[in-house]
Amino acid sequence: MSTEVPADLWKKLTSTVGLVCVRHRGATNLMSAEWSYFVNKAPLYAAVVLGPRATTRELIAAAGEFTVTFCSEEQSELADFAGSFSTADVDKTTSDLVRLGEPEATGSPWVRGGLTAVECTLRQTVAFPVHTMYVGEVVAAHTPDPLPRPLVKHGAMHRLGGPAERTAAVVAAQLLPGGLLRVAATGPPDAEGPWRLSLLTAGGPDAHAETDETDALDALDAIDLGSHVPAPGGDLTVDLPLPEGLTGARLRGCRVRAERDGAKAGHASPAGTPR
Length: 275
Prior knowledge:
It is a single chain. This protein is mainly beta. 8% of the residues lie in helices and 43% in strands. It has three helices and 19 strands. It has helices at residues 56-63, 76-82, 213-218; strands at 15-16, 18-24, 27-33, 35-40, 45-50, 65-70, 100-101, 110-111, 116-127, 132-142, 151-154, 156-159, 170-176, 180-186, 192-201, 221-228, 236-241, 255-261, 266-268. The chain has a seven-stranded antiparallel beta sheet. Strands 16-15-18-19 form a four-stranded antiparallel beta sheet, with no helix packed on it. A three-stranded antiparallel beta sheet has the order 1-11-12, with no helix packed on it. A hairpin with a 1-residue loop joins strand 11 (151-154) and strand 12. It starts with 14 loop residues before the first strand and ends in a 7-residue tail after the last strand.
């Protein structure tokens, strides 16, 4: 396996393009920033990462503020345009696609039509080998109702598809001191009822000989570990005593099964036991 890092590896991730504005000499500079994020919750901070040729870097540093609009899917043409020219080339805000909103807490306007637009006071500048990150505290926000869908940058620009389907339970299990077994599980949001836990133990020498893993698991003997009420969000964390006669060493090859109505069962090999 090669350890070489591809030059375009950064394009494999996704982001929501930001339209960055800063007031400069009575005019408004506008540019696209592919790397635009929220980076702290409370207080809320937003960050934009700008390349070495961006005139906006000096303007943000001088103004001590900026605004960023996280683009909606209707703004793909504007995002491309705003990233194709410098403020030294042309006043990009003269385009009919640019509708500026008046700031409430800073002196820099913001672009309408996005998921949300935030006004930021510059709090930190982080210099990387090539790019520079500008981190600002959000001091005002402008969010439309209803909320539009985001523009997603993943190499090219994309619209979001439907929600990712979640159908299966995911479970982890760990042997604790004192002979307790901790089980943690999550499942689909529409799953219902209590969690049902069981411990699957080897039912014979051919229990794992099946080619299909589901068949192999069904061939194991199941020890009932009871039903358990989920937390308000549907997750489960519970510490259980090991069944009588089972020690850590005898858990070798055992699996924990977690089931809930509306979810495909999840399995785990307890950590802290030989595999």
